[in-house]
Please model this.
Amino acid sequence: MLAAERRDHLLGLLAREGKIVAKDVAAGLGISEDSVRRDLRDLAAGGLCQRVYGGALPVSPAAADYASRQAVAPGGKRKVAAAAVALVRPGGALILDGGTTALAVVRALPQDLACTVITHSPTIAAALLGHPLAEVFLLGGRVFKHSAVACGAAAVEAAQNVSADLCLLGVSGVHPEAGLTTGDAEEAAMKRALAARSADTWILASSEKIGTASRFRVLPWAEVSGLITDAGPGHPVVERLMAHGVQILAAG
Model:
């Protein structure tokens, strides 16, 4: 089998099974694991998969830049946002992550809702200017332009001095084995810092992120309250998460 044919086979397997186990592919094709790993390196370099120990997983579409992500699954993000807003209580304090799904949450918030919103996203803070009864606290630091959020030591330190009833956190990938992931180490650290300052943390993830992975783990499943997604209960990844005790809040 030619290299191009092997890579097509790998991409087909990834689409059907949701993962690639290098040793199983090597045994099935009668080739060495080194050959499979080389193919996976090439696919990962082209942004077609996320390499993990022993194989590969589907790559998250959230690897695209912020402007491009706004056009990805806007309907799904609106559904997730509507379900998330139902968790926000009048008079409560909310930590709201950055990103396009969090922006959809702001747009779904009632204009007359009195609450406190803590965010490290200047985009989110600006969007909240149209909510007259919402107090907005903006955490500062180095701006990570990919997600339009503040990250780094200064931002993490600022997060350690706030607290909230609820944290709504976005991630790039949601996978039963890889967990909750994102593409930047400092952004992952900032998300952990935010989640640590809230009584409850819910993950925002529209269906295109379900079953995908990025490079850096954000949190283990045991440290979040649950997942808000528009992926249906019949989705195989959602079924696996529910079987492992993850609470799912269905959106839409």
Notes: The CA atoms of residues 103 and 242 lie 27 Å apart.
